[in-house]
Amino acid sequence: MDSASPSSVSPTKQEDDHVTSITEEHETTCWGCGLRLIISPYAPIFKCGWCGAITNHNARKYDNKYFWLRRLRDRCFVVILLLFMLFIIGSGVWAIYPTIFSTGYFYGIFHMTVTGILSIATLSTYVLASSRSPGAPPRIYWGSYPAMGRNGLMDYTFCNVCSNPKSPNTHHCRSCGMCVLDMDHHCPFIGNCVGAGNHRSFILFLMSAVTSTFYVSIISANILYQIWPPLRHIPSVTLTWSTIFTYLAESALPFLISVESLSIRGFLLIYLFFASVSVEIGLAVLLWQQICFIYEGKTYLSSLSSNSNGNDEVEEKDCQNIVRFFGCSNPATRYLLSFWNFKKSHKK
Ligand SMILES: [Zn+2]
Ligand SMILES: [Zn+2]
Ligand SMILES: [Zn+2]
Which domain, by its residues, includes 121? Predict the structure, then answer.
């Protein structure tokens, strides 16, 4: 055994003799390597000097009582959201296509193709992100000193529910009932955790959802403009900065009257426009935040813990993090990124 083994660990006979002289309450066993540790009294959290595992006597004991209820809630939400997406696609096609095909046959075919691609991309990435396992941590040997090498469990904690070690980036999710490797957060919209196993599908879903909602907002605004009933009493004010308020006030009433003669398709388009714009803003903010975390080599949860510990520069900010995340091994991307990094290092 390593001669530099710390004083808190008692692997040798000599140290074992030393242990016996200390009262029972000062002595405990490391869950990671099984060695006896001598700790000061009233120290509920301590780190093993040999394997690096952290033992926390105050660790919360989760009750798994309502696990099935949380799972059911998540699954119901996924079904509701899937139905909502199908409703948006179906009603969008019904409201938009008559006008699009009346403009031109090829124009209609073009938009049909775009709608098809965006719908398939959004629905498939959504199903993948919500049904894929978020990624369980790999099973590792623990609990015996000869098998567990020095620092073999550095900063690992123990999950009382799964009865398995957790690496620093692994967290237990009560809704999923499992430990999740590189857990980002539990997303109620996909009814699943976002972790090492489905993070890429989640980002691809956000990307296709933002693109789809952007497309829906543009196309519904455009069709609305085309089918809006003409205003009967157009105000005859010449538009300048001083008359703009008079113009708006005078056109408000004719505008409201024109809404009356708007078709059911028109009302649906108004709904589609506002729904897609609001969803698009929310998802775009989330996507931007996620891309920033990937660029910084972090997850949402690890950024929270690094902020609370005060060490912000744990991982290096690098575009390679994004490439690694998406698994692009294309030589062209590698060349472009090395060029970008070369420029960056010369600017410093
Ligand atoms: Zn240990
Ligand atoms: Zn667990
Ligand atoms: Zn979860």
Answer: 63-135+181-230+258-326
